Each structure stands twice: as C-alpha cells, then as structure tokens.
C-alpha cells in the first residue's frame, strides 16, 4: 500500500523535524476515530491533544504531529515536531494539493453546503478517483485536514468551506487552490457577525479568490445579492455559470415534481432540457442539483452519467434524512421521522417545512385516528439583533397550514410559540433535554415528524429519543414518478 505521508515528505512540507522514519496511511485529529497507521495531529482546541499523544501511539498511530515532546512520550517515539501544529496541518494540506493533478471543487453557501457536497460525491463516484470532505469539515482545521488526507492519485476532490466571521473563506479557498467554486445560496445566517445580507454575500463570494486562472464560478442566479457575486467572479477572471429558476439562468429549473420521497425535475440548458432525479423531496434540493450538473459540465463529464450518479444521492443524517420508526412490528405501524437537526436558519427552516407539507400521514393506525404532520423546531442561532422577529415570522409560512402541531425548543423559539395559532401551539421547552421525558407523548402512529434546529440547541437529542420509541428502518418506497 502506498503511504499517504512518509516522514521525509511530511518534514519537507512542514519544515518540521522527524524524530525517526515512519510512514502514515491516514491523518487523524481524534483518538476516538484514529486508525492504526494514522498520523495523529495534536491540535489545541477545548483540550490540548498533546495530552493524548501517548494514547494515540499506543493505539497504533504511525506518528504524531506535535509542537513539543509530550510528557510521558519517549524522545525517540515517531514524532514530527513543528513550531505550531495547526500551521503544520495547513502546510500538509497545501503540499497535498500541490502534489496532485486533481480537479478540486470548493463549495460554500448559507444553506446546503453539505448536501451539495454529497450530491457532488454521488455524481462523481465511479468517474475517477474521488476524495471528499467527511461530515462538515469546513472550518480552519477541517479544510486543511481534508486536504492533508487527499491521496496524490486523486482525480476529483470536493472541499466544503464554511465561515462564522468575515475573512474566513478566502484563506481556506486559496489553500484548496480551486478549479471550480460553487455557492449554493446566500441567506440570513451568521448575521451576528455581519452588517446585513450584503456582507454575507461578499464573504461567500470570497471563495472565488481561491480559483486557479481559468477556473469556473458557479453561483445562484435569482438572489437580490447575485450582482455582488457576479462582480466578485468577474474581478477574479473566472468563467461564470449561473443556476436558478429565473429566465436567463444558464442552468434553469424548468420543472420540478415533488413527491413524499423524491424530486423529479428538468434542467433547461443550452436550448435543451435534461431530466434528473434526487431521492428526497424539496425544490431547494433540485436547485442545488442544477449547480452540481453545471459542475459536471464544467469538468467535461458525460451528462448522462452525471444525472445517473446524482440520482443516487440521499440526504445524510441530520440534514433531512427520512426514516420510518416502527413502533409495532407485528402490525408494521409507526411514524415517519425527518431528521434535520444539524443546522437551521430562516431559509433552511422554510425549505424543511415545505418538505414536511409534502409528506402524507397515515390515518386510522394510531391513538389519534387522523395522522398528523408535526414539527419540533429548535432555535436558529447566530441571527443577530432581529433573531426574535425571524423566529416569530415562521408562524406566517404557508407550509404551516398543513401542520397539526408545532413544538418549540429554546428561548428564541418562544417567539414562534407565542405567534402560533392556539390550535397549532404544542409544547415549549427551554432546552431539548427538558422535552425528552415527553418524547413518547409528542407523536403517534401515522404521524410524520420533522425535527429541525441549529446544532447548538441539540434537538438531535429529541431525534435520538424518538428513534428509541421503536425500530428504525430506512424507507424503501421511493415512489415511481
């Protein structure tokens, strides 16, 4: 097996000192997920990972990237000593990018980064050696870690790039040295750090600073801030492809048919239409899929193979994944759960409620004869001074017309709870943990339940509690349309 990193290569990349010769097959920052043969990177975060170097080596790590010899570790242990561990990881990431001829795609946006990254993964699978970010590794350590893990023989790489504050995206995009840069959308997220939506647009557009000469910028056509994105793309000399629903978009959503389990859509491009499908309901998913198809064309790939690969995509856990929770295996009845507990802002909240509205409950199978659509909504974080008004505004979303009950979690969601019509007003809890004792009473057989909120409000605890009510099983009735 070809080593991902040798001590000689890693020392040359970082300017560090190897205490002995070693070869690593992977890169890890966590002893809980470390595999034998990994290079363990001792980052300082909540805790200093130098405290875990001995444990990592005992678990089979090939070596450790450190800024000093940790206490309890022999000086002749396999180490790579650098002045600063994070900077050392960044240097590994840049070196990994420099040694490969891969086409690298960077993805950012206020909503849909991870889903779009996974769509790209599905589309590119089987079309070459593929490397893509795990989970949401999109920050100051996640991007260099993803790059450092990239084998030299990679053909395509997909890098997710996120931000919380101004000035974060451009350095990460430059590190990734992009061939394509894709912006999913610009929406009200992280407003606490920006003056307004225009500031967010400028920060998202900074991803174009990481494009190689002749690179391609893929961006949404229909937004009020689209001119900001176009201006930045033009300033970098990028080729531009736009996607959206409006006339004039290079990749236009000509139609979209949504069922409870899938979206079948048509893309209008270059005087022709292309049919495609994603295995989840949602117009927002169809729009992101347009951007993915545009990326495939920019890479010179077969459009039919791209559509076929895209059709295999399903939302990952915590991002709209739908599953059946069987509470009575004998009668084969239970409720459907939509797990969207990882991220929330006004745009993604609206999209998730629209998906819930498309779902069909089952009648006459539970304690309550009529199956219900139920939403369990947690706080949307980092929205700035207007956060309470943005939460209350959810009560006016048209999709709520078909929702029987809305349970709310968090101090900000108290604003929505108050604004809801009395008939739709379910429970309110300060924290997700406060709602757990009532999990069994919140749902009934035949219901369809959406759980949605920002990661920090921990409504994923409620998802786990609902799963424990029965026997989860992936849905298989994907429909025929």
Task: Please explain how this structure is put together.
Keywords: ATP-binding, Cell cycle, Cell division, Cell shape, Cell wall biogenesis/degradation, Cytoplasm, Ligase, Nucleotide-binding, Peptidoglycan synthesis. Pathway: Cell wall biogenesis; peptidoglycan biosynthesis. Its EC number is 6.3.2.10. The protein is an alpha/beta fold and 481 residues long. The protein has three domains: 5-84, MurE/MurF, N-terminal domain (Udp-n-acetylmuramoylalanyl-d-glutamate--2,6- Diaminopimelate Ligase, Chain: A, domain 1, 3-Layer(aba) Sandwich); 100-310, 3-Layer(aba) Sandwich (UDP-N-acetylmuramoyl-L-alanine:D-glutamate ligase), CATH 3.40.1190; 321-474, Protein-Tyrosine Phosphatase, Chain A. The protein contains 16 helices and 23 strands. The chain has helices at residues 7-14, 53-58, 85-98, 113-124, 142-148, 169-176, 197-205, 226-235, 283-298, 303-310, 346-358, 387-392, 413-419, 432-435, 439-442, 460-467, and strands at residues 5-6, 17-18, 23-24, 26-28, 38-41, 63-66, 79-81, 103-108, 130-132, 156-160, 178-183, 211-220, 239-244, 251-258, 263-269, 272-278, 321-328, 333-340, 373-378, 405-409, 425-429, 448-452, 471-474. The protein has a nine-stranded mixed β-sheet with strand order 9-10-8-11-12-13-14-15-16, sandwiched between helices. It has a seven-stranded mixed β-sheet with strand order 21-20-19-22-18-17-23, sandwiched between helices. The protein has a five-stranded mixed β-sheet with strand order 2-7-6-5-4. Helix 13 links the parallel strand 20 (405-409) and strand 21. Helix 4 (113-124) packs across helix 10 (303-310) and helix 7 runs parallel beside helix 8.
């Amino acid at each position: 097996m070809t080593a991902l990193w040798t001590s000689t290569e890693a020392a040359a990349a970082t300017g560090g000192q190897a205490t002995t010769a070693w070869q690593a097959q992977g890169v890890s920052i966590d002893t809980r997920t470390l595999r034998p043969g990994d290079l363990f990177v001792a980052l300082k975060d909540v805790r200093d990972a130098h405290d875990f170097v001995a444990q990592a080596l005992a678990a089979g790590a090939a070596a450790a990237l450190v800024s000093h010899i940790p206490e309890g570790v022999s000086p002749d242990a396999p180490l790579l000593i650098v002045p600063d561990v994070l900077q050392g990881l960044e240097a590994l990431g840049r070196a990994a990018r420099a040694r490969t001829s891969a086409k690298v795609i960077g993805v950012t946006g206020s909503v849909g980064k991870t889903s779009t990254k996974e769509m790209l993964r599905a589309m590119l699978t089987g079309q070459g050696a593929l490397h893509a970010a795990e989970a949401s590794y999109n920050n100051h350590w996640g991007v260099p870690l993803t790059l450092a893990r990239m084998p030299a023989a990679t053909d395509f790489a997909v890098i997710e790039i996120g931000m919380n504050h101004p000035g974060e995206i451009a350095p990460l995009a430059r590190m990734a040295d992009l061939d394509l840069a894709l912006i999913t959308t610009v929406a009200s997220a992280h407003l606490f750090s920006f003056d307004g939506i225009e500031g967010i647009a400028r920060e998202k557009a900074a991803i174009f600073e990481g494009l190689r000469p002749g690179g391609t910028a893929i961006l949404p056509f229909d937004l009020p801030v689209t001119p900001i994105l176009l201006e930045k793309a033009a300033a970098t000399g990028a080729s531009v492809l736009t996607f959206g629903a409006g006339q004039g978009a290079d990749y236009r959503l000509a139609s979209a048919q949504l069922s409870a389990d899938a979206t079948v859509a048509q893309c209008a491009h270059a005087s022709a239409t292309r049919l495609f499908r994603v295995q989840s309901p949602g117009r927002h998913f169809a729009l992101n899929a347009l951007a993915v198809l545009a990326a495939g064309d920019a890479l010179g790939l077969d459009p039919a193979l791209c559509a076929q690969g895209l059709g295999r995509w399903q939302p990952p856990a915590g991002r709209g994944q739908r599953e059946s929770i069987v509470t009575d295996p004998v009668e084969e009845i239970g409720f459907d759960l939509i797990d969207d507990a990882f991220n929330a802002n006004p745009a993604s909240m609206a999209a998730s409620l629209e998906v819930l509205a498309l779902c069909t409950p089952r009648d006459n199978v539970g304690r309550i004869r009529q199956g219900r659509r139920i939403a369990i909504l947690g706080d949307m974080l980092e929205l700035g001074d207007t956060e309470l008004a943005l939460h209350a505004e959810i009560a006016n979303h048209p999709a709520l017309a078909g929702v029987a009950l809305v349970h709310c979690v968090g101090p900000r969601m108290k604003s929505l709870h108050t604004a809801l019509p009395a008939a739709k007003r379910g429970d309110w809890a300060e924290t997700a943990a406060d709602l757990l004792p009532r999990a069994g009473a919140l749902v009934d057989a035949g219901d369809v339940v959406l759980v949605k909120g920002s990661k920090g409000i921990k409504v994923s605890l409620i998802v786990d509690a609902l799963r424990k009510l029965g026997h989860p099983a992936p849905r298989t009735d994907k429909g025929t349309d």
